C-alpha cells in the first residue's frame, strides 16, 4: 500500500534535486481537510471564525518543519481542502488518491468518525477539532490520533483547579443539544473523579430565541438571573454549552453572585493567544506575523498535528509514511508544544497527552494538571480517560 | 573581608587589584534592569535600567564592556561595567535572546529567536558581519575554546548547528532532544554539552566527529520528571565538574566531568535558569527566575551557601574578569 507514495517521493526528489545541495530531498506530504458546517454565527462577533482557521496553523507548522527540513534534506507540504459534511468523504478519497497518507481532519465527531472509517488503513488521520469522548472510547479507530483534547481532559483540567480553589459545589447547566449533553457527561465524570458535588443540574433548553434576541443586554439581562434563581447553595456554575447557545451570557447575570466556568468564564482550552510561558511568546509572534491575527485553538491543534508528522520525519530521517506512523505510535515519540513538557500519544486510545490551559478572556489563569494531582505514570494522565477505564480496544493491539 | 566592604564603593581601586572582589551582573527580564553585586560579600551594589526585557548578558575579556541583549528593544546595549552608563548599542537583529563573544573579544554571535537567524556583529565597528539562517527559534550559543566553531541551538528544530567562524557557514547539524536551550564546551574543547529543556537531558557531543557520545539524564526523588528541565550549563576550567541548571525543579545538578555521571542535586531558588562562575571558580551564581533571587554555590564544597534577592525575574548572569 505504500508503493504509490514512495514513487511520488522519488519523483519529487528529482524535481527538487537541482535546486538544492542535497540531491536526495525527501518529500513528506500531508493534507488539512476542514469540514465546514452550516451553522449560526457565534454569540460574540469576536468569535467569528477567520477564513483561514486551522489552515494558518498548518502553514506555520509547514514553515517550521521546512526550516528543520533544510538541514535534514526534507521538504514538507500540506494541501488545504475545504469540504462540507456531504463532500468530505469524496475529498478525503481525492487526497488519498494523490498519495497523501497523513490527513489533519477538522470536523465534528460524527464526520471525523465517518472519515476515519472511510480512510481505513490507507491514511493516518490527525483529529484537530473533535472533542467527544466516544471518539476516543467505544468509537475509537486505530488510524486516528487525537491532537485536540477530549471533553474528559478539558473537564478534568477545570475540575482539578476548582477543587484546588476549594469550590467543590457545582451548579451544572448543560445545553439541550447532544454535544452539550456529551460535555455535561464529562463534567459529571470529573465531579465524581475529583470529589466535587453537582448540587443541581439545570437544563438550558435551546428554544431558538435566546441567542437572537439582541447583543445580550436587553432580554438576556432579565432572563439569566431568573434562570439561575433558587438554586441550592453552590460555589461555581459550570456551563456545558458546546453549541455556543447561552454560556457567554451567564457571567455577572447569575441570581447568586457566583463565578462561571466551563463554556464561559474560566474556560479550559488547548491554547490561548495570550499564552507566554515556555517560549510561547516567540510562537505567538511567528503566528501573528504570518497570519495577521491572533491564534485560535484550532490553529494550534492543526499546527501540532503537522508538527507531529514533521517531528517523526526528523527523528526517523524518513519520508516513508509507514515508518513515520510506526514511530508516532511508538513509545519513542514525543513532540514539544510550548506547554513546558513533552507531549506523547496514549497507546490505549491514541489521544495526545497535554496540559490544559484554564483561560479567562485575556489571560491564562492556570494550567492543569494541578501540582497536587499525582499519577504513577504521568501527571498528564490525571486528565481524561486513563488506561484502566478506557472503552477503546484496538483490534491491532493484543 | 572588612577592607573589601570599605573599598567596595571605590570601584577604581577594586578594578586595579585582581585579588579583590569582582562585580556580578544579573539581568532582570521583567524588571528591565541589571542588578550589580559584589562577588565576595554578595552585597547588592546597585540596580541600573538597561532597556526592555534584558536576557543574555556577557562581558568583554578585558572587562571594559558589558553587553546586554535588550530583547524587546531589538538591540544589544553596551555598558561601562564600572559606571553602568550606556556607551552605545549594537545592531542585533530582532529579538536577541542569548549571545556569545568570540574568545578574542570580537565578534559577538547573537541568536535572534523570532527570526531563525544568528547575527554576527563586530563590536568595534558595530557592523553586522553576517546573518546565518539556522533552525526554528535559535537560542543557545556556545563557542569552541579555539574560537573556530560557534554553536547555535534551535529550540523547535531541536538541533545544535556548528557554524564555522571564518566562513559563517553551517558545517554540521546534530539532532538532540526537544528544545535545546544551551551549548557549552569544556575548556580543552574535547566535549560539547547541549541541554534539552523538554527532552530533560544533556547531550554530550564529540566536537571532532559531531557525534553524540552520551546523554545525561536526571532523576530527583520527589520531583516530577516533567519539572526537570535542563537549561544553563557551566564547566569548571579543569573539566572536572559540570553544573546544569534544572529550571522548575529548582535544582542544580553537579556532574562528574570525567564520567558524565550526576553526583548530586543542589536545591536553589525557583526556576533556576543561567549560571556564572567567579574567575577563580570559588563561587557559582545561579539566576532563579520565579523567586527573584540568585543562589551562591560554593564550587569546592558543592553546597549552596547563600541566596540574595535581586530584581524581577532574574535571567542571565556574568561575573567581571579579574
Automatic annotation (TrEMBL), chain B:
UniProt superkingdom: Bacteria
Organism: Paracoccus subflavus
Taxonomic lineage: Bacteria, Pseudomonadati, Pseudomonadota, Alphaproteobacteria, Rhodobacterales
Presence of keyword Heme: no
Protein name: YVTN family beta-propeller repeat protein
Cleavable signal peptide: 1-21
Keyword tags: Signal
Gene3D superfamilies referenced in this protein's UniProt entry, alphabetically: YVTN repeat-like/Quinoprotein amine dehydrogenase
UniProt-listed InterPro entries: Host-pathogen_enzymatic-act (IPR051200), Lactonase_7-beta_prop (IPR019405), N2O_reductase_N (IPR011045), PQQ_b_propeller (IPR022456), WD40/YVTN_repeat-like_dom_sf (IPR015943), WD40_rpt (IPR001680), YVTN_b-propeller_repeat (IPR011964)
Amino acid at each position: 500500500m505504500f508503493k504509490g507514495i514512495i514513487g511520488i517521493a522519488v519523483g519529487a526528489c528529482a524535481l527538487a534535486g537541482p535546486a538544492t545541495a542535497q540531491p536526495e530531498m525527501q518529500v513528506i506530504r500531508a493534507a488539512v481537510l476542514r469540514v465546514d458546517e452550516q451553522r449560526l454565527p457565534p454569540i460574540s462577533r469576536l468569535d467569528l471564525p477567520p477564513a483561514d482557521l486551522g489552515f494558518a496553523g498548518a502553514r506555520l507548522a509547514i514553515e517550521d518543519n521546512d526550516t528543520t527540513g533544510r538541514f535534514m534534506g526534507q521538504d514538507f507540504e500540506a494541501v488545504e481542502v475545504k469540504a462540507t459534511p456531504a463532500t468530505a468523504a469524496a475529498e478525503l478519497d481525492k487526497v488519498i488518491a494523490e498519495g497523501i497518507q497523513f490527513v489533519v481532519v477538522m470536523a465534528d465527531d460524527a464526520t471525523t468518525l465517518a472519515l476515519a472509517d472511510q480512510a481505513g488503513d490507507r491514511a493516518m488521520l490527525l483529529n484537530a477539532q473533535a472533542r467527544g469522548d466516544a471518539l476516543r472510547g467505544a468509537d475509537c479507530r486505530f488510524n486516528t490520533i487525537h491532537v485536540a483534547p477530549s471533553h474528559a481532559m478539558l473537564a478534568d483540567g477545570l475540575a482539578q483547579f476548582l477543587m484546588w480553589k476549594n469550590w467543590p459545589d457545582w451548579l451544572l447547566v448543560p445545553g439541550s443539544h447532544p454535544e452539550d449533553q456529551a460535555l455535561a457527561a464529562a463534567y459529571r465524570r470529573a465531579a465524581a473523579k475529583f470529589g466535587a458535588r453537582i448540587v443541581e443540574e439545570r437544563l438550558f433548553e435551546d428554544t431558538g430565541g435566546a441567542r437572537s434576541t439582541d447583543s445580550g443586554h436587553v432580554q438576556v439581562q432579565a432572563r439569566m438571573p431568573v434562570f439561575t434563581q433558587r438554586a441550592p447553595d453552590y460555589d461555581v456554575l459550570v456551563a456545558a454549552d458546546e453549541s455556543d447557545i447561552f454560556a457567554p451570557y451567564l457571567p455577572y447575570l447569575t441570581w447568586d453572585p457566583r463565578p462561571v466556568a466551563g463554556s464561559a468564564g474560566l474556560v479550559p482550552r488547548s491554547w490561548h493567544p495570550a499564552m507566554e510561558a515556555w517560549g510561547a511568546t516567540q510562537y505567538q509572534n511567528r503566528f501573528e506575523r504570518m497570519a495577521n491575527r491572533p491564534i485560535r485553538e484550532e490553529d494550534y491543534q492543526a499546527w501540532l498535528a503537522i508538527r507531529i508528522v514533521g517531528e517523526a520525519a526528523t527523528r526517523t530521517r524518513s519520508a516513508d509514511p509507514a515508518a513515520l506512523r510506526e514511530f508516532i505510535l511508538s513509545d519513542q515519540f514525543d513532540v514539544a508544544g510550548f506547554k513546558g513538557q513533552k507531549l506523547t500519544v496514549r497507546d490505549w486510545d491514541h489521544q495526545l497527552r497535554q496540559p490544559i490551559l484554564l483561560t479567562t478572556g485575556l489571560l491564562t489563569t492556570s494550567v492543569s494538571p494541578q501540582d497536587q494531582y499525582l499519577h504513577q505514570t504521568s501527571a498528564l494522565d490525571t486528565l481524561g480517560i486513563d488506561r484502566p477505564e478506557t472503552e477503546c480496544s484496538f483490534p491491532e493491539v493484543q | 573581608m572588612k577592607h573589601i566592604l570599605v573599598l567596595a564603593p571605590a570601584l577604581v581601586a577594586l578594578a586595579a587589584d585582581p585579588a579583590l572582589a569582582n562585580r556580578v551582573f544579573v539581568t532582570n527580564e521583567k524588571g528591565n534592569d541589571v542588578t550589580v553585586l559584589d562577588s565576595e560579600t554578595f552585597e547588592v551594589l546597585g540596580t541600573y535600567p538597561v532597556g526592555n526585557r534584558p536576557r543574555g548578558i556577557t562581558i568583554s575579556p578585558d572587562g571594559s564592556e558589558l553587553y546586554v541583549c535588550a530583547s524587546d528593544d531589538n538591540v544589544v546595549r553596551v555598558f561601562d561595567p564600572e559606571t553602568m552608563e550606556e556607551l552605545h548599542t549594537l545592531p542585533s537583529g530582532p529579538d536577541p535572546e542569548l549571545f556569545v563573544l568570540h574568545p578574542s573579544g570580537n565578534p559577538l554571535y547573537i541568536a535572534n529567536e523570532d527570526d531563525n537567524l544568528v547575527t554576527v556583529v563586530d563590536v568595534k565597528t558595530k557592523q553586522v558581519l553576517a546573518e546565518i539562517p539556522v533552525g526554528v527559534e535559535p537560542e543557545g550559543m556556545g563557542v569552541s575554546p579555539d574560537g573556530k566553531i560557534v554553536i547555535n541551538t534551535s529550540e523547535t528544530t531541536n538541533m545544535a548547528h556548528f557554524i564555522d567562524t571564518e566562513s559563517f557557514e553551517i558545517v554540521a547539524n546534530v539532532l538532540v532532544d526537544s528544545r535545546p536551550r544551551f551549548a557549552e564546551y569544556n575548556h580543552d574543547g574535547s566535549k560539547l554539552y547541549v541541554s534539552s529543556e523538554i527532552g530533560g537531558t544533556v547531550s554530550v557531543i564529540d566536537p571532532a566527529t559531531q557525534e553524540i557520545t552520551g546523554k545525561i539524564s536526571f532523576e530527583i526523588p520527589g520531583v516530577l520528571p516533567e519539572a526537570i528541565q535542563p537549561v544553563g550549563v557551566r564547566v569548571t576550567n579543569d573539566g572536572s565538574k559540570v553544573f546544569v541548571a534544572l529550571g522548575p525543579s529548582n535544582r542544580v545538578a553537579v556532574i562528574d566531568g570525567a564520567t558524565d555521571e550526576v553526583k548530586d542535586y543542589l536545591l536553589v531558588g525557583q526556576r533556576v535558569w543561567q549560571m556564572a562562575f567567579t574567575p577563580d571558580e570559588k563561587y557559582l551564581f545561579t539566576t532563579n527566575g520565579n523567586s527573584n533571587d540568585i543562589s551562591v554555590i560554593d564550587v569546592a564544597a558543592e553546597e549552596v551557601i547563600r541566596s540574595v534577592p535581586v530584581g524581577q525575574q532574574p535571567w542571565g548572569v556574568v561575573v567581571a574578569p579579574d
